[in-house]
Amino acid sequence: MPDRLRILFVTEDDPLYVIRLFEVFFREYPVDRMEICGITIDRAFHEPPWKTLRRMLRFYGPWGVARLSTRFLRAKLSGRSIARLAQEKGISMLPAASVNSPEYLERVRRLAPDVIVSVAAPEIFRSEILRIPRLGCINIHSGRLPVYRGMMPTFWQMLHGEPAATVTVHEMAEALDAGKILGTVTVPIEPRDSLDRVIATTKQAGARLLIDVLSKIGRGQETRVPVDMTGKKYFSFPQQEHVREFRKRGHRLL
Q1: Tens of pLDDT along 132-151?
Q2: How far apart are CA 147 and CA 74, in angstroms?
Q3: How far from 4 is each of 108, 139, 169, 188, CA to CA, in Å?
């Protein structure tokens, strides 16, 4: 068998949305051309649980948080997780207190991945980890760049009346969401849609986009398009007034 592209994933522990990307990717990626040599699964947000709860309450409201919590508990009780999917595929876990710590960096060097793929990784990659893989680090972002840089890009695209959510795979650079674009795919947004549906659909479409981009990287046939940063914007986590505007558009969160 010819040398396969060695891939290390860095992601967050999310059994509701991010897991949908891995369900598709692990099922469909070409095992004869790609080897997933490890996966790092970190906790979301890197903040105290009470702070995350407060953020979610402001965004979803008590009823929405109760619904999401029920779904989350059902997933946990069923054993549904990214870690379990990886274990079923025989993929090694690579734990990390921080992806920028000297201990983690040394482990990654020994693993020698060709590409590191960030999927909703909750930390910013610093220069040292960006330099380790011979073919670079790439990130999948659920927004059109450079307009929808930052957090919750699917929400902001829906709020601004975009006809579709754009999923972008791009190189990782020290400047946030500024690396060259390797591929995009769009997911239509209905006039009266739900954030829940659009996020889930972008994760599944993003998995297939990732497979396509990584296949091209493995063959040395990828196209890298520079991002024109003159029109760049950055969005932080939505506030309650943004959620009210979102609902006035006819959209739902769940």
Answers
A1: 999 999 999 999 999 999 99
A2: 36
A3: 17, 20, 20, 34
Give the end-to-end CA distance of the chain in Å, rounded to a whole number: 46
The string over 11-20, giving b where at least 16 C-beta atoms fall within 10 Å of a residue's C-beta and e elsewhere, is bbebbbbbbb
User: What are the φ/ψ torsions at residue 170 (nearest 5 degrees)?
Assistant: -145, 160
Let me know the angle formed at the C-alpha of 66 by 197 and 80, rounded to the nearest 5 degrees. Answer: 60
Residue 188 falls in which region: left (phi positive, over 0), alpha (psi -120 to 50) or beta: beta
Q: What percent of the chain has pLDDT above 90?
A: 87
Across all residues in the chain, what is the average pLDDT? 94
The 3-state DSSP class for residue 191 equals coil
Residue 83 neighbours by CB distance under 10 Å: 16
Q: What is the pTM of this model?
A: 0.94
d(CA 159, CA 195): 10
E runs forming strands in the chain: 5-12, 34-42, 115-119, 137-141, 149-150, 164-171, 181-188, 234-235
> What is residue 27's predicted lDDT score, i.e. its pLDDT?
97
